[in-house]
Specification:
The protein is an alpha/beta fold. It has a single domain (about 15-240, about 310-320, about 350-465), classed as Glycosidases (TIM Barrel). The chain has helices at about 5, 25, 40-45, 65-75, 90, 100-115, 135, 145-160, 175-180, 195-225, 245-270, 275-285, 335-340, 360-375, 395-415, 460-480; strands spanning about 15-20, 80-85, 120-125, 165-170, 225-235, 235-240, 310-315, 320-325, 340-345, 380-385, 390, 420-425, 440, 445-450, 455-460. The strands form 4 sheets. Strands 1-2-3-4-5-7-10-12 form an 8-stranded parallel β-barrel, surrounded by 5 helices. The structure holds beta-D-galactopyranose. Beta-D-galactopyranose binds near residues 23 and 173. Pfam families: Glyco_hydro_1.
Length: about 475
């Protein structure tokens, strides 16, 4: 049975965005070519022991050289939208506007012009994990200085590309960046300062995002008429035992400490979720921290964070069953603050990576949750996908089933739950450098042969079937207009 027969395409609006996503460090390669400065991921992946088999993104899919191939892949799928990120240090090698790299500007101009020339709408992420290393030397996201620097970079991008780019994502997954980069040390910059650095980093990311949204709003919106948001990731959390009040509360805390951490300030109250504040404040007393020292306070002297998103950009991958964790007295860590222990339902298949349990129904539930708790925003699902590990299967039937089920859940969210879902972006257009897993984990709609210089792209069956859904939807909307 093919995916195109199963998805109720008539539910999706005529202007529904059908997309796929990538990120600069994961696909571009050309890490030291044409004036690009190093990013924290270059340094991290060049350090022994950080990435599977010490692989790195030096070449990756070589999209810097092979953009024409990528464009062909995008066209092959019939996508209406393409989400990609700028390598900040390709445009501004030391992260600041003191020096602009003309070859970086030329590259992204070509990408954007090629897309718009084919009526494909670009969605650009300004920074997808790969902070310029020069800024890391100045304290990176821990330093309050980053807010001004990020704002200058963003304004430069709006000025240079904003006549053609109408969808901007400031930052990708601040929760993952802060937690994996500063608590677990698994992502660049590889810091393990448990229970403190991640909140500061998250705070500066929110401040920087808000500043950039206000800049766009004040100086560019009237001319460029685009939209700005921040891509937030979240699992869907359910209580292990729905009849147990402690588990119910723990599942809510899990949501508050993941989605709520960033969504609540931007969409709901302008501040962190109450449960985060109260838990962390209570633990501060126990751990001898001053109030506000770990989870910072938003200053009234800065423009508000509330309302700084023109749509909700959601990255969803997996769901969790959650129960109350046993207390960890004296332990300084995010897990101890959160007090929730996650498990995975044994009936959910694990795909590729151990953290990815497949549960498409979770996406529908999460969409409704966002509708209810975040004032019914327009939602673009900016990432969602299925991983393969081990021998390549071009006939990726499990992934086909996954997309079929997922798109059906999205259609139910729209039709039955009234969620305002405006678009869906598959992660990813291409197999690519999957962070600490290197090239061992494949998320692409196109297979990439990393063993050959050509990095040839071959469509997976899931890519063909996704293309069929897009084509059927386009056909349907054309038909219903006639
Ligand atoms: C997201 C991230 C992507 C991609 C994906 C799959 O967290 O934004 O870059 O790697 O996960 O793991």
């Amino acid at each position: 049975m093919s995916l195109s027969k199963d998805v109720s395409v008539e539910v999706f609006a005529a202007d529904f965005a059908w997309g796929a996503s990538t990120a600069a460090y994961q696909v571009e390669g050309a890490w030291d070519l044409d004036g690009r400065g190093p990013s924290i991921w270059d340094i991290f992946s060049h350090t022994k022991g950080r990435v599977f088999e010490d692989q790195n993104g030096d070449v990756a899919c070589n999209s810097y050289r092979l953009w024409d191939e990528d464009l062909r892949c995008i066209q092959h799928l019939g996508l209406t939208h393409y989400r990609f990120s700028f390598s900040w240090s390709r445009l501004l090698p030391d992260g600041t506007t003191n020096y602009v790299n003309p070859k970086g500007v030329a590259y992204y101009n070509k990408v954007i012009n090629d897309l718009t020339g084919k009526a494909i709408t670009p969605m650009v992420t300004l920074n997808h994990f790969d902070l310029p290393q020069a800024l890391e030397h100045r304290g990176g996201w821990k330093s309050p200085e980053i807010v001004d620097v990020f704002d200058s970079y963003a304004r430069f991008c709006f000025k240079t590309f904003g006549d053609r780019v109408k969808f901007w994502i400031t930052l990708n997954e601040p929760q993952i960046y802060a937690k994996l980069g500063y608590e677990d040390g698994l992502f660049a910059p590889g810091v393990k300062e448990k229970g403190s650095a991640l909140y500061l980093v998250g705070h500066n990311m929110l401040r920087a995002h808000a500043r950039v949204w206000h800049s766009y709003h004040a100086h560019f919106r009237h001319l460029q008429r685009g939209k700005v948001s921040i891509a937030l990731n979240s699992d869907w959390a359910m209580p292990s035992d729905p009849g147990c009040p402690e588990d119910v509360a723990a599942a809510q805390r899990y949501m508050d400490f993941s989605l709520g951490w960033f969504a609540c300030p931007v969409f709901c109250t302008g501040d962190y979720p109450e449960s985060m504040r109260s838990r962390i404040e209570a633990r501060n007393l126990e751990l001898d921290f001053v109030d506000g020292q770990r989870l910072p306070k938003f200053s009234e002297d800065e423009p508000t964070v509330l309302g700084t998103a023109d749509f909700f950009a959601l990255n969803y991958y997996t769901s969790r069953k959650v129960k109350q964790a046993s207390p960890r007295p004296g332990e300084l860590s995010f897990a101890a603050d959160q007090g929730a222990e996650r498990t995975t339902d044994p009936s959910w298949p694990i795909c590729g990576v151990s953290w990815l349990a497949v549960f498409p129904e979770g996406l529908r539930k999460l969409l409704s949750y966002i509708k209810e708790t975040c004032n019914n925003p327009a939602i673009y699902i900016t990432e969602n996908g299925f991983a393969q590990m081990g021998p390549v299967e071009l006939e990726d039937l499990d992934r086909c089933q996954f997309y079929r089920d997922t798109l059906q859940e999205v259609s139910k969210a729209i039709r039955d739950d009234g969620v305002n879902v405006k678009g869906y972006f598959a992660w990813s257009l291409l197999d690519n450098f999957e962070w600490t897993h290197g090239f061992s984990v494949r998320f692409g709609l196109f297979h990439v042969d990393f063993s050959r210089d050509e990095r040839s792209r071959t469509v997976y069956r899931s890519g063909r079937e996704y293309a069929a859904v897009v084509a059927r939807h386009r056909g349907h909307t054309k038909f219903s207009k006639d």
